[in-house]
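Team,

Forwarding the record for the chain on the shared tracking sheet. I've put the sequence and predicted structure together so nobody has to dig through attachments.
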Amino acid sequence: MSDTEENTEMIIPCVLITSCDSGFKEEELIKQILVTKYLPEPTKREETVAWYPWTINNKYYTADVRLCVVPSTFQMSSEIAQSMQAFIAYFDSTVKDGLEKLHPWISVVEDIAPEVLILVCDRVCESGVTRHEAQQWCLTHGFELVELNPQELPDEDDDFPESTGVKRIVQALNANVWSSVEMKDGHNQGFGLMSSLVASRHNNPRSCQDPPQSSSLPEEGELVHEEANHTERSTNSDTQENTVVDAMTDLDIQELANLTAGDADVDNFERLFTKLKEMKDKASSLPHEQRKVHAEKVAKAFWMAIGGDEDEIDGLSSGEES
């Protein structure tokens, strides 16, 4: 009986939440995500690792997930690795080396390749980690930057203001195609079309990349060594750039899944255009060739989601000039 229960628990997807800031505990972010002052009883606890229950319940589907606190890479286990479908890392933006403390997690994230990757801080800091530095780090590693208390809020007069803070984190998690998803009546068709587009990546993540030469977790001191060897790995730059584009595209496609699966009401239509504007702004930071690839993939996914014929857009190619 206990073995059966343990196996059942392992298949429930989890959101791994870690903090590289000693002054900010992972549980604080969980309370904000759950909109509660008090944490629920963890479904499981192993020393400093804890699994908190969360049922995502929106207009389109329900999904049982676990918000899993993992303070460092040394607490990683096969159970966490097998169920991890999203990764959220908090860092201290007030210190110059705030991003360097995330380095031990990079190899873990690359090996597991969760669908959702979010980098969180209170707000970027000119005397610590600047917005440009944080965005460049996110672009390199395929993350999305979310400030819990951004200094610059979206323009209230903007017809399609972007979401910020915890609201944005919850949006991204709601847009993921969870393995535990149960669709609600009337919302299966569109979501299913979009889910199929990300299924190959979900089932075989990072299949195009070579496996790591060592399964050991990186030491903090390896950061300087990695940077020194950067030029030796320059031949892999194309693959790395494609990985960044694929990560951004996957997240965009997953979010379009919700918006194209719903009823054709005004609210849903406005949210769809809000998302399209966000995607345009996010892709604008990419180099020209990557931006073309990103736009092509998202356009194709959107076309198929609204019932378009794939044959009509087979001629699209990132190599074609407009």
